[in-house]
Specification:
This protein is α+β, with helices and mostly antiparallel strands. 52% of the residues lie in helices and 9% in strands. The strands form two sheets. Strands 1-2-3-4 form a four-stranded antiparallel sheet. Helix 4 packs across helix 7 and helix 10 packs across helix 14. The longest helix has 20 residues. This is Integrase. Keywords: DNA integration, DNA recombination, DNA-binding.
Length: 401
């Protein structure tokens, strides 16, 4: 049965099992797993079966696809390869875009949909590694050898991990372009994996036991640093919150009456608010910060009261503290993010349920529970945090001077 616009609209953007539907005159559509609907043409060239892509619906409409049939039949009748002839015909008014041009178009069209920090990262990656280097050859003509040569350059002038990150970025751009019908979806880059061009980011394994947390806490207290620096790192290790959630914490996010602090959606990795209890130790730290900086704006301000302390400042301070502990106690390397692994591991050993520790970490639930259970377990979180500080405090008391 011939296809109609109504049938095509129902097919488009539905992520389901792949399906192929025939139209007429060798024309058909294939819906992929990602919901894209690709026009295809079946024929025989040099006595061999050929299935060629004509573009994606709705960029290539039903009428556009049908109008191509006479051209395709003509090319076959005169012995031309319909794939090459269609490619030349498609160029028509404009040349095929380069990956650099597609990346710039992707930035212009989609960058605003991401959070400010993500926008900054993506702009940096594109500006440094993509836009300057992928502008000499159309993306559709890039071969596997071309891509490997490009990623070899990144690996040599950056790092193997950088090459893997840029692979993900470029594939995102080209998949976006393919979905819009601006690029065939058979580009060789789509078959590349991070292991082919560089190294995947290593998954962290480090977590600090209570005796190391005690050493860390004591060294922070002894350090000569701004109160905001010391308190920020303490709150990171005390709560297991993401560093950005602590750095961007404002007094307006604190409900002092109910002893709850809320991470607003714009500061949350999950784009949803995260509610945590304010424990006695956290309140003690907040009171000390209020005495120094006042109860307005950022709780841990940076060089200016109107700006949050920077990631660089927190990481640098943490590295300095680790340097002291490594020199004195041979403590293994740790970073602020290891606080999250520490609190989850240690509280699990103390029989705090996973659904509580996941809430403490600000992780989003999955599956049916995410749909129906909106409870924050504030009371259970508070009990977990109090137990955690109690164990750290006991370890501090047991330290040898």
């Amino acid at each position: 049965m011939a296809l109609t616009d109504a049938k095509l609209r129902k097919l488009a953007n539905k992520k389901d099992d792949p399906i192929t539907l025939s139209h007429r005159d060798g024309l058909r559509v294939k819906r992929n797993k990602n919901g894209s609907v690709l026009w295809q043409y079946r024929c025989r060239y040099l006595c061999k079966p050929v299935i060629m892509s004509l573009g994606y619906y709705p960029e290539v409409s039903l009428k556009d696809a049908q109008d191509l049939i006479p051209h395709l039949k003509h090319w076959l009748s005169i012995g031309e390869d319909p794939r090459k002839a269609y490619k030349a015909y498609s160029k028509g008014a404009a040349d095929d875009p380069t990956a650099s041009e597609l990346a710039q178009k992707w930035l212009n069209n989609t960058l605003h949909t991401y959070k400010p920090k993500t926008q900054e990262v993506y702009s940096h990656h594109m500006g440094k590694w993509v836009l300057p280097y992928l502008k000499d050859k159309p993306a559709c003509e890039m071969t596997a050898a071309d891509w490997h040569k490009y990623f070899d350059y990144i690996r040599e002038n950056g790092t193997a991990k950088t090459a893997s990150v840029i692979l993900v970025r470029v594939k995102t751009v080209l998949h976006w372009a393919a979905m819009r019908g601006e690029l065939p979806n058979n580009n060789p880059i789509f078959n590349l994996q991070t292991k082919h061009v560089g190294e995947s980011a290593t998954q962290g394994q480090r977590w600090l036991p209570f005796n190391e947390l005690a050493l860390l806490w004591r060294k922070i207290e002894q350090a000569r640093a701004a109160p905001a620096n010391k308190a920020c790192l303490q709150l990171v290790f005390l709560t297991g919150a993401r560093q950005s959630e602590i750095r961007e914490l404002k007094w307006e996010h604190i409900d002092e009456e109910n002893k709850i602090w809320t991470v607003p959606p714009e500061n949350s990795k999950t784009n949803k608010p995260i509610r945590r209890p304010i424990t006695k130790k956290m309140q003690e730290i907040l009171d000390s910060l209020a005495l120094v900086y006042g109860k307005k704006g950022y709780i841990c301000p940076g060089s200016s009261p109107r700006k949050a302390i920077t990631t660089h400042a927190v990481n640098r301070f943490c590295a300095r503290i680790w340097g002291y502990l490594h020199e004195e106690h041979k403590t293994a390397k740790f970073v602020p993010h290891d606080a999250r692994r520490s609190i989850s591991t240690l509280l699990s050993e103390l029989d705090i349920p996973p659904y509580v520790t996941e809430k403490m970490l600000g992780h989003a639930r999955r599956g049916v529970m995410a749909v129906y259970n909106k409870h924050d377990y504030i009371k259970a979180q508070a009990e977990g945090y109090e137990l955690y500080w109690k164990k750290i405090n006991e370890a501090i008391a047991n330290l040898k001077s």
